[in-house]
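Students often ask why inverse folding is considered easier than folding. One informal answer: many sequences map to the same fold, so there is more than one right answer. In these notes we will look at a single instance of the problem. The structure comes first.
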């Protein structure tokens, strides 16, 4: 470093500087280890380093710099030391000039070196100044520079001190010592961090990430994360303990960049349609895209993230350079060990160089991993955000082709697989580069014999690519089966009440397990091929070694197998082995990623809502018409036929327009067209002013009442109170434990159906919009509540008076109150006008009213104004009827935190008091995974298979050890006349051991994968059984999202991750045993270093596992919130768009994703912290093994020395991967904990009992007797039904009525044993229902619920789930419900596939299909639980006529809101507060003028 020094030590010549002018052939070691060469390299490398990287660094900080730093004491000291070094080198350059001036000749380098270092030190000092100006607090560039600068002064200091020539040249010594002191001081100061900038552009977060405050060594080693790891080791981590998210990692920043590039790329595609970009017909289901659409998305991802990826790739390339330096250094080291005359310092230097090379390889590799992991995190955030934004703009046709479960599966599985593939992208080219470099090394070692290695390797490549191709086919098959299973599971969990009511659990379990069996079959085949692929690469490595050694010893002239050839070849082959083992895994991951990427790209290309489908303009006071449609023709999608034709409609300001028509006429489609949800084929649609929308099926969010009503609007308490009172929610909210702040639960699980509908209406009213579009908001309400809500809100004197209202309704009694009535039929406007005008026309409206007329008992001359006593006389009583607060219910229709489709309102539990229960949070376990979890998994694998697997791993590892040791013996064989005597024998046994190892490796890996598949099958069956056997209360308390997480994400981990982590752990653990034995046998002294290193490893592992397991669990729970919000938005996207609330919803998604990022980032940093520190500790073992070999050189053979050091070079990676594999396995084992969460939950009664089989014809008559019956829905709630004693005769038709909360539905639940009796009991035909199995009981009773439920699958499957009827019987049932013509028109007829839950059918059509399903069951007892509440009166007449014909001899229980429905019953039960208040015929009850009479008055029947 010092320019004064000569190129050799004082008194020692450099042989005329032969380093620079060498003509004689010398050994390689001479060139690389000559002190003159090392000193020359040390003199020129630091300046070259700084002058090459410095300008690039200056440009970077100029573009990315922030506020300047204050002139701190640290900066001042750095500058003073810099100027001191400048003065020193000025002096060193001046001395030779002075001597030349005095006539003393000087070597040119004595002047050149100080001059170069003078300019370099000046540049370094300038960089210190510029870093302060640009706000750089810790410099990695200068840290590396000062570190390099220490090399030559340190060597010179040692040599000069040992030479003892201070008196001869004191000035030279002092300059060298001063130079070293100053450089070391600069190095120490560069490890410190400067003060923060004077003025910060961003406000400082509460808990900033310590990376910004860390020094360069701390950043390189990830020591800045140690505080969080120590905190996680000492206590449970909470949100406050996690670091705040940096802006560059936030969702808002990342998604906006990717979306911008995605839109730009998509708009450049030929055939792009212009609006929004997306026009793929929805019939191309995104799960199975027919053509690749990945191009635009791939280009967008590359443009956004390429800089991070390329920088990481550069780090990886540098790391690999040091990786391949190790075999070269090992070759030099073994050359040193074989040369008895070489000096000892050469061995020490080589040991240090091997250690430094291994350390630099570790540091650069971990920097690559860190950057790629951060890139993965950012990419996951960006793509998830892109999917969420796509959900907000999906067209109605696209939504029908992709259920919420598919979308959530897309985010939770496909996005994850895509981001994981980023790590393997470089494997496609870099691993091939590894292989080439390895073959070059082999050529240098073994000469032309290495060519045989190329031949062997290339001959095996086609086999491996064939295996990979076959495996990708089975992988795609598994993905298809998995998606099918996810859809069916989601549907089952959403409709579990219907399934249990009918006793269909076994049929669905059989269907689901059949799909699961096909999925596991594909998984087993894929795992088998994966094992073959790995073993084939292992065999190819062994064959390379065998053929190369055989050819070399038998053919080559210099055929002796010495230590250098043997063990350097082994080291090179170990690198080759890693490349060949990692290559199929990389290909496998990329194949998976390609499938997932295609699914993502196809989803992002689905058809969007046309922004030009409806023109929304600000309100103008002068305008008379608020809504206008001119010659409008609309379709659901590009490929479907138009559903509305020739619509011409004008709605003036302040008008109440009622839209009526038969089922399937297009009423809801008209509102969708006005909202811009339908594809506009021709015409125009315009709306003036803001819009509020009330959907037919209520959609509420998992928030409080007030947040649902305000819906991102500012809180106005007086207006909120007025809205709640008008919507008949005031008394309900007052009864809630937290008032308006009471959480409603997921999908309103704490509310009844009527409450949810009124809450949905209140949300629209609170909006104070100019235009209101309401899709049958009164259908789910009791008659008196319906009247009240209409009068207070919708009607002429309601809160919405003066606004423009379009009301789609089946409630015909409101029609006289409407300003205009529009009648739709077959997608066209049949007629439009005022109520009186349409009556006089005697057209379509009159036909509707006639269809709703009572079948009998009304004279021909009755005026149409009183066409239906219930429907049209609703306002005759005058005044607002009094009503009690409707009691909320727990619902099984909670939205799925992983998957749900259209919200379904199951039969209302109208008598459960609210208890303030919120949606259940997903369980999060803390601490280490319990040993019982491992034991349960191993029991699922099976003890014999576990023992057999361990034995196989031991056998193959013994074969591996013997193979390496046999090679060391071969290398030590004496050489006679240039040949070894036993080469053939050595080669034959070497080949035999390699074959045994390959066989054992395949058998052991196949055993692990087969055991994993067996365990996965049993655990899934157990989870499915535990959930299916749970009572209905379990589903009311457990959000479906939590269940879907177990059935999707956690099951995927058990299927794939755990077997793979188990295989990795066993491979490395047994490999560690082999390495430990090898090192201990060759150099026993190394054991002294191994033991403390093992203690340090244990300490690092304890810190890491305690924190990482917590972070993993927190991350899983937080990601559930992201999935839940995504599913919730998918269900309510039409409402969100109608309210123009896309912005707030996007912001909420970004906030949830950012919270998940706050957990993901510390977890990936903890991974790097572990890897970097453990590998550095392992690199220390390399140094110990090498130094032990140097110390034992006198009595250690070259073969044993090579065996020791080459084994030590492997232990670093092996030890690190043992810890990582164990930790990954423990993290994955959390999934086993979670799938076993429901093992100990209460289960319902047995499905089948032996006593049931003895009565196959039960019940014969259908007599039902309640004896002092009572039940409560949960232990903490009051009795919902109590003291009910009555007998219903066989064949009797009994109506059950009562106000909301009276206990009507609870009676039927008790009859079906959905809720077990708390007191008393129920007898059917004299047999207690508790003596019958649940399936026996439920299969003998038919229930038609209020809301129709269909399942994914064919129409025939939906009608005859148990396949008990012929096609003729099914067609007869369809003809009875007047659906035969409709089904005949469907493609495939009975084999027509219902999408989702029959989303492509109208509510009325679905209800008629459910009726046909009931007709086919042919049971003696029929329950209609509000079955006609959601259909128009005409459909209701059809249903009643069919029921009267098919169930004339059956016992019928009819629960009804519409009293008209029970007027033909032989007896009516009036429920009040859980008891039977009145019982008798309708005429008797009306004559008593009791509760039934009051209800009839409210309905206009009395």
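Output (designed amino acids):
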């Amino acid at each position: 470093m010092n320019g004064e020094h000569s190129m050799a030590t004082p008194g020692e010549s450099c042989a005329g500087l032969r380093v620079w002018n060498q003509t004689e052939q010398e050994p390689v070691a001479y060139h690389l280890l000559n002190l003159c060469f090392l000193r020359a390299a040390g003199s020129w490398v630091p300046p070259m380093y700084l002058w090459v990287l410095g300008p690039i660094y200056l440009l970077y900080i100029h573009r990315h710099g922030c506020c300047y730093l204050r002139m701190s004491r640290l900066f001042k000291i750095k500058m003073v030391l810099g100027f001191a070094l400048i003065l020193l080198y000025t002096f060193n350059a001046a001395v030779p000039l002075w001597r030349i001036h005095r006539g003393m000749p000087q070597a040119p380098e004595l002047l050149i070196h100080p001059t170069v270092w003078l300019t370099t030190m000046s540049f370094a000092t300038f960089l210190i100044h510029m870093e302060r100006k640009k706000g750089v607090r810790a410099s990695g560039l200068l840290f590396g520079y000062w570190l390099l600068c220490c090399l030559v002064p340190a060597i010179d200091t040692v040599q000069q001190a040992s030479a003892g020539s201070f008196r001869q040249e004191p000035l030279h010594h002092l300059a060298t010592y001063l130079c070293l002191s100053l450089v070391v001081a600069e190095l120490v100061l560069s490890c410190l961090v400067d003060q923060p900038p004077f003025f910060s552009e961003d406000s400082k977060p509460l808990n900033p990430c310590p990376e910004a405050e860390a020094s360069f060594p701390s950043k390189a080693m990830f020591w800045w994360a140690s505080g969080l790891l120590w905190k996680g080791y000492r206590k449970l981590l909470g949100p406050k303990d996690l670091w705040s998210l940096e802006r560059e990692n936030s969702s808002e920043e990342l998604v906006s960049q990717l979306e911008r590039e995605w839109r730009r790329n998509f708009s450049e595609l030929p055939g792009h349609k212009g609006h929004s970009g997306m026009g793929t017909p929805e019939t191309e289901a995104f799960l199975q895209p027919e053509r690749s659409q990945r191009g635009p998305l791939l280009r967008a991802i590359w443009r956004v993230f390429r800089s991070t990826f390329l920088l990481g790739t550069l780090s990886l390339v540098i790391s690999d350079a040091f990786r391949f330096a190790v075999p070269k250094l090992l070759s030099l080291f073994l050359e040193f060990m074989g040369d008895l005359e070489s000096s000892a310092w050469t061995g020490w230097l080589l040991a240090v160089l091997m250690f430094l090379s291994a350390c630099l390889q570790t540091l650069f590799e971990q920097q690559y991993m860190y950057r790629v992991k951060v890139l993965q995190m950012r990419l996951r955030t960006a793509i998830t955000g892109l999917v969420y934004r796509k959900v907000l703009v999906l067209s109605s046709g696209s939504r029908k082709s992709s259920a919420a479960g598919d979308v959530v599966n897309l985010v939770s599985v496909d996005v994850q697989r895509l981001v994981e593939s980023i790590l393997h992208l470089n494997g496609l080219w870099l691993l091939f580069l590894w292989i080439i470099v390895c073959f070059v090394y082999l050529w240098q070692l073994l000469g032309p014999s290495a060519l045989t290695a190329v031949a062997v390797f290339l001959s095996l490549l086609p086999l491996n690519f064939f295996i990979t191709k076959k495996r990708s086919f089975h992988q795609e098959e598994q993905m298809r089966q998995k998606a099918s299973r996810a859809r069916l599971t989601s549907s089952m969990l959403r409709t579990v009440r219907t399934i249990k009511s009918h006793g269909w659990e076994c049929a669905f379990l059989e269907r689901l397990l059949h799909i699961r069996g096909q999925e596991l079959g594909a998984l087993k085949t894929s795992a088998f091929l994966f094992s073959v692929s790995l073993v084939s690469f292992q065999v190819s490595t062994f064959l390379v070694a065998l053929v190369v050694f055989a050819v070399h010893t038998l053919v080559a002239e210099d055929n002796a197998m010495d230590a250098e050839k043997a063990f350097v070849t082994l080291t090179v082959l170990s690198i080759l082995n890693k490349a060949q083992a990692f290559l199929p895994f990389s290909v496998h991951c990329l194949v998976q990623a390609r499938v997932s990427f295609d699914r993502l790209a196809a989803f992002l290309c689905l058809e969007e809502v046309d922004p030009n489908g409806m023109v929304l303009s600000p309100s103008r006071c002068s305008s008379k018409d608020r809504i206008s449609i001119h010659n409008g023709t609309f379709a659901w999608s590009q490929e479907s036929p138009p559903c509305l034709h020739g619509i011409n409609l004008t709605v003036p300001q302040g008008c109440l327009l009622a839209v009526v028509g038969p089922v399937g006429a297009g009423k809801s489609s008209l509102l969708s067209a006005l909202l811009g949800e339908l594809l506009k084929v021709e015409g125009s649609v315009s709306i003036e002013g803001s819009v509020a929308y009330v959907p037919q099926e209520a959609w509420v969010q998992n928030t409080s009442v007030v947040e649902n009503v305000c819906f991102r609007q500012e809180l106005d308490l007086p207006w909120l109170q007025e809205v709640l009172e008008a919507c008949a929610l005031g008394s309900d909210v007052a009864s809630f434990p937290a008032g308006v702040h009471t959480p409603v639960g997921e999908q309103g699980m704490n509310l009844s159906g009527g409450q949810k509908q009124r809450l949905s209406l209140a949300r629209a009213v609170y909006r104070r919009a100019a235009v209101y579009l309401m899709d049958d908001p009164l259908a789910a309400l009791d008659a008196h509540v319906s009247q009240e809500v209409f009068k207070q809100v919708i009607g002429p004197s309601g809160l919405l008076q003066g606004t423009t209202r379009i009301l789609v309704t089946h409630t015909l009694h409101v029609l006289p109150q409407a300003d205009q009535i529009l009648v739709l039929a077959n997608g066209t406007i049949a007629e439009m006008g005022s109520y009186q005008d349409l009556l006089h026309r005697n057209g379509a409206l009159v036909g509707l009213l006639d269809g709703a007329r009572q079948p009998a008992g009304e004279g021909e001359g009755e005026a149409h104004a009183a066409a239906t006593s219930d429907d049209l006389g609703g306002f005759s009583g005058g005044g607002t009827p009094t009503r009690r607060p409707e009691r909320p219910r727990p619902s099984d229709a909670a939205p799925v935190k992983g998957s749900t489709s259209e919200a379904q309102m199951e039969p209302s539990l109208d008598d459960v008091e609210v208890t303030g229960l919120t949606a259940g949070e997903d369980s999060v376990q803390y601490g280490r995974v319990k040993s019982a979890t491992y034991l349960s998994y191993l029991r699922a694998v099976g003890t014999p298979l576990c023992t057999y697997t361990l034995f196989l791993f031991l056998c193959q590892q013994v074969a591996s050890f013997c193979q390496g040791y046999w090679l060391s013996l071969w290398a030590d064989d004496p050489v006679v006349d240039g040949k070894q005597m036993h080469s053939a024998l050595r080669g034959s046994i070497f080949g035999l051991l390699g074959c045994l190892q390959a066989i054992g490796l395949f058998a052991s890996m196949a055993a692990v994968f087969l055991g994993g598949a067996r365990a996965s099958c049993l655990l899934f069956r157990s989870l499915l059984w535990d959930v299916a056997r749970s009572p209905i209360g379990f589903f009311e308390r457990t959000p479906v999202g939590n269940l879907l997480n177990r059935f999707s994400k956690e099951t995927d981990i058990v299927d794939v991750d755990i077997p793979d982590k188990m295989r990795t752990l066993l491979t490395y653990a047994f490999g560690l045993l082999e390495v430990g034995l090898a090192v201990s046998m060759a150099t026993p002294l190394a054991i002294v270093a191994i033991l403390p290193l093992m203690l340090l490893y244990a300490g690092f592992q304890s810190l890491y596992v305690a924190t990482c397991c917590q972070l993993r669990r927190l991350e899983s729970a937080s990601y559930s919130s992201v999935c839940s919000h995504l599913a919730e938005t998918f269900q309510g996207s039409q409402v969100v768009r109608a309210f123009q609330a896309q912005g707030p919803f996007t912001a909420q998604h970004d906030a949830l994703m950012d919270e998940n990022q706050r957990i993901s980032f510390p977890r990936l940093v903890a991974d790097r912290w572990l890897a970097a520190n453990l590998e550095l500790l392992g690199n220390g073992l390399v140094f110990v093994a090498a130094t032990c070999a140097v110390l034992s050189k006198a009595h250690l053979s070259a073969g044993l020395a090579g065996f020791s050091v080459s084994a030590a070079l492997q232990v670093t990676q092996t030890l690190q991967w043992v810890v990582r594999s164990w930790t990954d396995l423990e993290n994955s084992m959390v999934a086993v904990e979670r799938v076993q969460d429901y093992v100990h939950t209460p289960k319902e009664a047995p499905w089948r009992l032996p006593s049931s089989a003895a009565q196959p014809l039960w019940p014969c008559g259908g007599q039902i007797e309640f004896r002092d019956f009572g039940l409560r829905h949960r232990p903490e709630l009051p009795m919902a039904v109590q003291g009910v004693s009555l007998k219903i005769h066989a064949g009797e038709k009994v109506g059950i009525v009562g106000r909301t909360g009276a206990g009507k539905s609870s009676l039927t639940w008790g009859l079906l044993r959905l809720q077990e009796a708390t007191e008393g009991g129920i007898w059917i035909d004299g047999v207690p229902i508790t003596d019958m199995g649940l399936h026996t009981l439920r299969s003998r009773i038919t229930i038609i619920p209020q809301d129709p439920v269909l399942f994914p699958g064919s129409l025939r499957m939906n009608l005859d789930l148990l396949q008990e009827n012929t096609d003729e019987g099914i067609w007869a049932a369809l003809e009875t419900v007047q659906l035969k013509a409709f089904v005949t028109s469907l493609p495939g007829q009975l084999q027509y596939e219902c999408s989702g839950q029959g989303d492509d059918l109208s509510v009325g059509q679905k209800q008629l299909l459910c009726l046909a399903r009931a007709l086919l069951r042919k049971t003696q007892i029929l329950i209609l639980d509000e079955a006609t509440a959601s259909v128009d009166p005409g459909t209701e007449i059809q249903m009643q006529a069919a029921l009267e014909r098919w169930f004339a001899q059956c016992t019928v229980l009819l629960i009804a809101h519409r009293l008209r429905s029970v007027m033909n019953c032989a007896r009516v039960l009036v429920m009040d507060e859980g008891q039977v208040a009145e019982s008798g015929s309708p005429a008797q009850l009306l004559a008593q003028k009791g509760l039934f009479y009051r209800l009839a008055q409210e309905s206009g029947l009395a």
